[in-house]
Amino acid sequence: MKLFLIDGHALIFKMYYAFLGRPMVNSRGEDVSILFGFVKYLLEMLERERPTHVGVSFDPPGGTFRNELYPPYKANRGETPQLVIDALDPLREIVSAMRIPVLMVPGFEADDTIGSAAVRFASDDMDIYMVTPDKDYGQLVTEHIFQYRPGKSGSDNEILGPREVCDKWKIASCSQVIDILALCGDSSDNVPGVQGIGPVGASKLLAKYGSLEGVYAHIEELTPRQKQSLEAARDYIFLSKKLVTIRTDVPFGTGLEELVFDTAYTSGIDSLLDRYEFPSLKKLLRRLCCGAAGSSALAPAASSVPAPAGSSVPGSAGSPAPAAVMQSEAGSPASVPIPECRLADASLIRPGRVAVELCGERLRVCDGVSVAEGSPEDFRGLMEDAATVKAGCSLKAVVNFLARRGISLEGRLEDVELLHYLLNPERSHKLEDLALNYLGLDIDGGAGRPEQSASLFDAASDDAAGTDSFLRVRLLLPLADRLIRELRAGDGILAGLYDRIEEPLIRVLSSMELAGVKIDLDSLDDFASSLRSRMLERERQIRDLAGEPELNIMSPKQIGTVIFEKLRLDPAARKPRKGSWPTDEQTLSELSARSPIIEAILDYRALKKLLSTYIEPFAGYVSPGDGRVHTTFNQALTSTGRLSSSNPNLQNIPIRTDLGREIRRAFVPGAPDRVLMSADYSQIELRMMAHMSGDEHLIAAFNAGQDIHAATASKIFSVPVEEVSPDMRRIAKTANFGIMYGISSFGLSQRLHCGREEARKIIDGYFASFPSIRNFIDSTLRFARENGYVETLFGRRRYIADINSRNGSVRAIAERNAVNAPVQGSAADIIKLAMIAVDSALRKEGLRSKMILQIHDELLLEVPLDELERVREILIREMEGVTELSVPLTVECNYGKNWLDAH
Q1: What is the 3-state secondary structure (H, E, C) of 699-733?
Q2: Smallest Cα–Cα separation from 684: which of 828, 897, 872, 882?
Q3: Inter-axis angle of helices 267-275 and 82-97, to 10 degrees?
Q4: Are 896 and 675 in contact (CB under 8 A)?
Q5: Is the pLDDT of residue 56 over 90?
Q6: Residue 586 burial by Cβ neighbours in a 10 Å radius (0-12, 13-18, 19+)
Q7: Distances (CA, A) of 336 to 69, 389, 482
Q8: Contact 803, 124 (CB under 8 A)
Q9: DSSP class per residue in 474-512
Q10: Element at 624 (helix H, strand E)
């Protein structure tokens, strides 16, 4: 898979200068040069490179943390050209209309956001391409992160891997780009360097001493001239290094699933391109989305630039392009024949086993001999035949599509996306990738790609009469056969997992998506208004306490000056020699007892985040037709088997604070005679750990119905349960949820706000009290190192690629994942089994109650008042009895007039 992260501002300026001497003006006299150049480059790059994931990052308005650290930063630059300013909003609108996420975080440049996304998402399965001409990005390049430099004046784009970056700068490691830039300075950003030291001299120093710090550590070994220059720069050079270092820890909420590149053509893009009068771009976009007849433009390119043998860039001469390697993931050459099928009428498709694919508002169906296209009604009988197996990719979408038209998709479902998800959860499950890896077929080449939304075009695709246009549906049956054979290999546990969990869950999730959940927009608006009022109140309070009527509360610099210099809340604190006072949450929390201004600032920040991140965007997901939110449940996304949701992501609704929980008040039943009922597994992951580790103390505590955190504290601190203090219980709770997943003494000390030595003693005491947990962790890691994967109780696998890595930090992350996956994955399997059982019981008894949401370990149902007791009985019976463990599964079940009251 490939994720392209585009530096939006860099590309804007590239287009500004490219068109400066020959502006492009539309019929209204508007200069649209930047818009045209940016969108044209973006579309051509997407068509050429075929990324699986895409994001565009822009610099946020206002300054960034670098301006706070060093006010002259970029002060040498002139005013931003008005043409650039005018292009920003239209470009963001166009990019968003193309369903490409815009990544922008206040206080951080696009470089930092891209750097953070690259580091977060890079993996053995995901190569990152940072699209930018900026030389600073070389510091981020690794074996899975590359710089994609746009060409100049029609020249080819250039892809830089580790070898290319190191050769360019004459350095041993890409991370030394930071030291080069610090030593040489960066005149474009007004970052000072060491006078008299250029790139060549800097690379020689780094070759000998490794880093800027190493150079200063050996300053006495340098020539008198070098020593003099370095001594003169000592006061600012390390600030320069901080300024040129691209941050990789920027907090942003966009997940990998939101960056998936969707080529679906939308009328929204059409109208935007019409507005700016870009007919040629409309043709290019249509070709990208739907494939032009006879075009080979959609075939994935190996690389945009010929690379020498041994290049570090994927797809170069030293590494064949994926399309050239006709080999399956299992390692055997792919040579699976795809049956030639005759084009037939829908009525001639034979029942028994068929492949089904959506094509706009129509269906394509193949029985292995004949292939047909028709309306849903043309295939009603076949779709509702329970004796006919249906194969497809992402079949939940087909179930939803047919259900909205009054047709039920019956029979066993063979979803190649889910079949492959069980075989290799962290790889791509897109049909294009599966066809290439398992069948040796490149269906991205154009002919096999059906139009995404035929209703947008005046006529059907020219190739609709030939069977080549049906390649995607024709390959589904042999692809499903291949995947099912692999699932059944060995002990067949994975095949059983599909039959027992994933296949029946498709229809359960479909019914939940179609039902949706009612949202009380008035309640949401009232809550938003109350938050804004509270923010205004906090603003006045903060300014009064600070004695600063014009204080900018969102300015860390101004807040730091008030707290540490004016109010002197921490007289012992020393301001960094260069930069501003720290005002992060941890620093401020430590001062909360010294002035009410601290609590007011933290509360203001929390209110602003709640409003802008969760509440204001949420209303946009409410369907105007029924006033309900119809989220999409992702069944083949997480590596542990847990479900996730998108549009909107309901898993992210905050639940740890009273204000965060208040959002749930807006989730209401759809009729006055109904309520919402919540059924939540109690401490399911701790129960899974007790069962899987066989720890007698935890098992005994759960079986006795004890407060598990108090019981843990009793063991750790060697006191009777009745003498456990609230603080002891708090420590034990943190230990229970952290230590079992490999938290370090440093991590525990941060959570408990204690010293590392004290945290180390708590960890040692925990494992001494629960030795079986230590043994479980050790045996799990041993199994992972020997086999390369771990398993849940039900046989679901997660492959741990870096478990034997020589890099200690990388290996530590892999070890945490290895311990987490069996526990969290087993809990995920149990909640899925519970959903299937509950749905079956509700249908069997003919009840009107509907399951509408699954969040973490909780099920939410909309229940008529006259079914309350019966549904409660079903939930407790089915959820607690879904599997047998050495500890009881306990379900807490409540109801109310909204989701909040149901807790």
Answers
A1: HHHHHCCCCHHHHHHHHHHCCCHHHCCHHHHHHHH
A2: 828
A3: 160
A4: yes
A5: yes
A6: exposed
A7: 60, 21, 9
A8: no
A9: HHHHHHHHHHHHHHHSTT-HHHHHIIIIIHHHHHHHHHH
A10: none
Exposed/middle/buried for residue 389 (C-beta within 10 Å: 0-12, 13-18, 19+): middle
Residue 329 pLDDT exceeds 60: no
- For the packed helices 521-546 and 596-609, what is the interaxial angle rounded to 10 degrees? 150
Lowest mean pLDDT among 33-47, 165-179, 461-475, 633-647: 461-475
The SS3 assignment for 175 reads coil
Q: Where are the alpha helices (DSSP H) in 245-354?
A: 267-275, 279-290
Contacts of 542 (CB under 8 A, 6+ apart): 551, 553, 597, 600, 601, 604
> Domains of the chain, with CATH numbers?
2-169+246-259 (3.40.50.1010), 332-456+463-516 (3.30.420.10), 520-626 (1.20.1060.10), 687-822 (1.10.150.20)
Decide: helix, strand or coil at residue 674. strand
Sequence-ordered list of residues with C-beta below 8 angstroms from that of 810, at least 6 positions apart, any chain? 802
Q: Are strands 353-359 and 342-343 parallel, antiparallel or unpaired?
A: unpaired
Helix, strand, coil percent values for the chain (each to nearest 5): 50, 10, 35
- Predicted pLDDT of residue 289: 66
Segment 856-879 shows an average pLDDT of: 97
Q: CA 662, CA 665: separation in Å to the nearest integer?
A: 6
pLDDT of the residue at 617: 83
Q: What percent of the chain has pLDDT over 90?
A: 47
What pLDDT score was predicted for residue 847?
98
| Arithmetic mean of pLDDT, 11-34 | 84
